[in-house]
# Entry
Amino acid sequence: MSEVSLPDGCPDPPEALPDYAERVLEVAEGIPAGRVMTYGDVAEWLEQGGPRQVGRVMALYGGAVPWWRVVRSDGVLLPGHELRALAHYRDEGTPLREAGRAAEGHLPRLDMRRARWDGDGGERAQGHT
# Structure
């Protein structure tokens, strides 16, 4: 992954991605369309770091991968990117739970029970099984 697209206002990336960041982005790229993994799922899959470290990698370097497939465990859409993410979810057929009338902004949430992917059928990064 040599080229990374960053959101406006982010610092320039270093010459080479840190190894951990490269591994996180590889996992994000491997998540099938219509499915999601939580930040914690990605860390567990890599057997390294935690949800905060994965979130930091995604915030800094995630623009070049399907960032909308790495999500919060409660299914709430990424603050500040809700409408962009929602368009991707609808295009990909990602299971959603429609918001109730009392929900702030009336935005749906991800249906985590149906949308969550456990990595089945994929190879673990760095040869883990």
